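Changelog note: in this version the structure field was regenerated for every chain. One regenerated record is shown below for reference.
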Amino acid sequence: MVAYGLPQLRVVDTPRGPLTYTLTRKRVKNLNLRVGAGNEIMVSIPPRCPVRQADDFVRERSGWILNALSRREDRQLEPLPPVSREECARLLTEALERVYPLVEPLGVSLPPLKLRALKSQWGNCHWAQGYITLNTALARCPEELRDYVALHELVHFLHHDHGPGFYARMDALMPDWRNRRRTLKRFSGALERE
């Protein structure tokens, strides 16, 4: 029996191996599951819910839990080297200048570049206002990833959404952009630390 409000560590056998989770009884209506910092699996249950129901709940959702844990492990955990404000501006301006010749023949003017510490985006295109913003955290990522984001934002001057035309243009201008995007996801931890 899990005492009300006191956490209990439990282990459940799943088809993909044992999972350890922390069980807590709370004033909740439903069983709740979350994966917290440090990859801790936490389940809260209503006061009268049987513990075996919590175990079954974790077992049934083991695929989702393991996927969530895997996504966290894929993120870049090593701290990226710090970059001064001047170095950041130089690196991101160079990225924009490297990829701009790809879109210049298509009628895109070189837009002004703004730099900001964004929480959830690597960059964005303000096509109506004629400028792009790149995340300062991007300066700490490898050059080919900076180039990918800069080109992504430039292509939005041609295709304002992520429709088929946008992806076709990215394929034509940077055939390996999908690999770069996948690699960039490993650095998502840099967004949180920026």
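Spot check on this record: The CA atoms of residues 148 and 177 lie 6 Å apart. The chain is about 40% helix and 20% strand.
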